[in-house]
Structures are given as structure tokens and as C-alpha cells.
UniProtKB/TrEMBL annotation:
<keyword id="KW-0963">Cytoplasm</keyword>
<dbReference type="InterPro" id="IPR020548">
    <property type="entry name" value="Fructose_bisphosphatase_AS"/>
</dbReference>
<dbReference type="Pfam" id="PF00316">
    <property type="entry name" value="FBPase"/>
</dbReference>
<dbReference type="InterPro" id="IPR000146">
    <property type="entry name" value="FBPase_class-1"/>
</dbReference>
<dbReference type="Pfam" id="PF18913">
    <property type="entry name" value="FBPase_C"/>
</dbReference>
<dbReference type="GO" id="GO:0030388">
    <property type="term" value="P:fructose 1,6-bisphosphate metabolic process"/>
</dbReference>
<dbReference type="GO" id="GO:0006094">
    <property type="term" value="P:gluconeogenesis"/>
</dbReference>
<dbReference type="GO" id="GO:0006000">
    <property type="term" value="P:fructose metabolic process"/>
</dbReference>
<comment type="similarity">
    <text>Belongs to the FBPase class 1 family.</text>
</comment>
<dbReference type="GO" id="GO:0042132">
    <property type="term" value="F:fructose 1,6-bisphosphate 1-phosphatase activity"/>
</dbReference>
<dbReference type="GO" id="GO:0046872">
    <property type="term" value="F:metal ion binding"/>
</dbReference>
<keyword id="KW-0460">Magnesium</keyword>
<keyword id="KW-0479">Metal-binding</keyword>
<dbReference type="GO" id="GO:0005986">
    <property type="term" value="P:sucrose biosynthetic process"/>
</dbReference>
<dbReference type="InterPro" id="IPR028343">
    <property type="entry name" value="FBPtase"/>
</dbReference>
<feature type="domain" description="Fructose-1-6-bisphosphatase class 1 C-terminal">
    <location>
        <begin position="204"/>
        <end position="333"/>
    </location>
</feature>
<keyword id="KW-0378">Hydrolase</keyword>
Length: 340
């Protein structure tokens, strides 16, 4: 067994140490990104703690109830938004914040401004809060350099993101991060209050055995999605049918897809041609992570990260996951386009 100091260091890697190591590869870096990330981590710990008490709301007055001081408490998604806005502004490293919960972008005061734009969904899967199912936070980071920030700085294709990640509040609290050089997962040790590297260099299996979609929308799907799901259930090439898993929290469905392989679909349909999921803070960060892990993300027309959003809260259909599984749905959409 290797008892050297180096061996111990790689055995127990906190997220802070991990990001500092990454930073040391860029000698010009002044640590701004490390500081920004430590504030995102702080926000995640805070929300994790609030989520773990969600079921006690009626007893101790959280989430829409009145607390012991007689004050009205905030709903968990509103509380999470406030936590992240405060954590990000107080980092002193941000200039524009875009949250699912806020109609408009927040421009940070010039005196406290940094160079990063953060787009985020403070609480994803919020319909699952009351039944204790996994929920999460999703974030993406862009950089503004050398000019006063404008809204155009966040209306950029996802491929321009510097980093993206999510934190899942589930049976454990897991933060998955990519700074553009692969994907790593960290699990919160609640007794230490530290995120520890538990899933180094995550690679999604090339092909998976699971498909994940809200089949309740099937009557309104288009041809390629209908054909694809039919193929998953009744394969004609002698392979086994895929299993269906659908939680209804994007963070949890994508996390399982990343670790086990397979495909997650939220297609457009006759009722909602652009689907449900938001480009900036759901589709882009998850697509960034998928590509970094060796998978693919497709909108039904193009590579998801090539999309150029025109509005902050724009939606897009999304198909993401294992490389070969996404190839199959791309082929079905290409065949449909060719037949038109
Ligand atoms: O209930 P549906 O239509 O299947 O939608 C599920 C999707 O909606 C979401 O809950 C939307 O996110 P929010 O909870 O942040 O609004 C995703 O997490 C999930 O993938
Ligand atoms: Mg969401
Ligand atoms: Mg949300």
C-alpha cells in the first residue's frame, strides 16, 4: 500500500482542493473562479440543509407556513433563489445573474462586480419536494471580459460556457461539475461539511439500457419521438427492450443517465412545440456535462450547445445521454427532415 503524502492527497480530495489544483494549471489565474465556485458550493450546502427539513414544514414552520416568531416563511424554491442570489453577489465575482425564478436578469452593482455570468435553476424538480423525491440546483457559468456586461453576454450558445454543474439533494447530496476538462462528482460529508471527490472523471456508457421520458405526453408527440420510444419498447433487431425510468426531476433523471447510461428525452409536442425545459439553465448545463462525459445532446434539429437563445427563459426540446442512443434519435429526425 502506498502511504506517501501524495497518495493520501489524491485519496481524499475536497472540491476546494480540486478546483485549486485546476487553477494551478493556469498560472495567469488570480483565483476568481475558485472564489465564485466556493460561493456556489455554499449555496448548495444551504439549500441542502433547507431541503432536508422540508418535511418538517408543518411542524416547525418552513415553506409557506408561519414560524414560531409568527413570520411567514418562504417557499423552498423562492428561498433557494434568495440563497443563490446572495451567495453569488457576495462572491464579488459576478456581473449578471439569470435565475429561473426571476423574470429579468440581475445586474450586479459596478462596485461589487466581477467577470462571471451565472445562469441557474435554484430548485429543479420542485413539484417533487412534498414527497421527498430527489431535487437539485443546476448552474452554468459564462465569462465577460473587457467590457461592460449586457444581456447579450448571457444570450450565448451553450458551447461558450466556461463551466456547468448541478447539485442533487437526494439520498446523499452530490455535486457534479465540469470546468471543460471532463466531469467530476463530489458527495457532501455532512459531518465534515465538505464535498469530497467520489466520482472522478465520469464517463457515460456509450450505449444504455434505460430511456427516460414523460410518456403521459405521448399522444401529442411527433413522428421521430414516437418511433424512437416504440423502438425502445419493441426492438426489431433482436435486442432486449430498454427499461423506463422517469422521476420528473431533471437533475435526478440526468444524474442516473450520466452514471448508468441511456437517454433522457423532453421532446416538443403538438401542445408545446418547444418542450418544457429552459435553454439557459436546464438544457445548456446538462448538455455541457453530457458532452464532457462523452455523450451527446440534441434538440431534434441541432447540437444543443450550438443553440443561440434569443430570450432569457427560452425553451427547447432536448434529447441527451449515451452517444449511441442519441445517434439513433438523430437518425430518426434526419430521416423525417429528408422525407419532407
Ligand atoms: O412533469 P413533467 O412535464 O414531466 O416535467 C418534468 C420536468 O420539469 C421540471 O421539474 C422543471 O423544473 P422546475 O421544477 O425547476 O420548474 C424538470 O426538473 C423535469 O425534468
Ligand atoms: Mg428545473
Ligand atoms: Mg426550478
Amino acid at each position: 500500500m502506498d502511504h506517501s503524502a501524495d497518495a493520501h492527497r489524491t485519496d481524499l480530495m475536497t472540491i476546494t482542493r480540486f478546483v485549486l489544483n485546476e487553477q494551478s494549471k493556469h498560472p495567469e489565474s488570480r483565483g476568481d473562479f475558485t472564489i465564485l465556485l466556493s460561493h456556489i458550493v455554499l449555496g448548495c450546502k444551504f439549500v441542502c440543509s433547507a431541503v432536508s427539513k422540508a418535511g418538517l414544514a408543518k411542524l416547525i414552520g418552513l415553506a409557506g407556513e408561519t414560524n414560531v416568531q409568527g413570520e411567514e416563511q418562504k417557499k423552498l424554491d423562492v428561498l433557494s433563489n434568495d440563497v443563490f442570489i446572495k451567495a453569488l453577489i457576495s462572491s464579488g465575482r459576478t456581473c449578471i445573474l439569470v435565475s429561473e425564478e426571476d423574470e429579468e436578469a440581475t445586474f450586479v452593482e459596478p462596485s461589487n462586480r466581477g467577470k462571471y455570468c451565472v445562469v441557474f435553476d435554484p430548485l429543479d424538480g420542485s413539484s417533487n419536494i412534498d414527497c421527498g423525491v430527489s431535487i437539485g440546483t443546476i448552474f452554468g457559468i459564462y465569462m465577460v471580459d473587457g467590457h461592460d456586461p449586457t444581456i447579450e453576454d448571457v444570450l450565448q450558445p451553450g458551447k461558450n460556457m466556461l463551466a456547468a454543474g448541478y447539485c442533487m439533494y437526494g439520498s446523499s447530496c452530490t455535486l457534479v461539475l465540469s470546468t471543460g476538462t471532463g466531469v467530476n462528482g463530489f458527495t457532501l460529508d455532512p459531518s465534515l461539511g465538505e464535498f469530497i471527490l467520489t466520482h472522478p472523471d465520469i464517463k457515460i456508457p456509450k450505449k444504455g439500457k434505460i430511456y427516460s421520458v414523460n410518456e403521459g405526453n405521448a399522444k401529442n408527440w411527433d413522428g421521430p419521438t414516437t418511433k424512437y420510444v416504440e423502438k425502445c419498447k419493441f426492438p426489431k433487431d433482436g435486442s432486449s427492450p430498454k427499461s423506463l425510468r422517469y422521476i420528473g426531476s431533471m437533475v435526478a433523471d440526468v444524474h442516473r443517465t450520466l452514471l448508468y447510461g441511456g437517454i433522457f428525452l423532453y421532446p416538443g409536442d403538438k401542445k408545446s412545440p418547444n418542450g418544457k425545459l429552459r435553454v439557459l439553465y436546464e438544457v445548456f448545463p446538462m448538455s455541457f456535462l453530457m458532452e464532457q462525459a462523452g455523450g451527446q445532446a440534441f434538440t431534434g434539429k441541432i447540437r444543443a450547445l450550438d443553440l443561440v437563445p434569443k430570450k432569457l427563459h427560452e425553451r427547447s426540446p432536448i434529447f441527451l445521454g449515451s452517444y449511441d442512443d442519441v445517434e439513433e434519435i438523430k437518425a430518426l429526425y434526419a430521416a423525417e427532415a429528408a422525407a419532407k
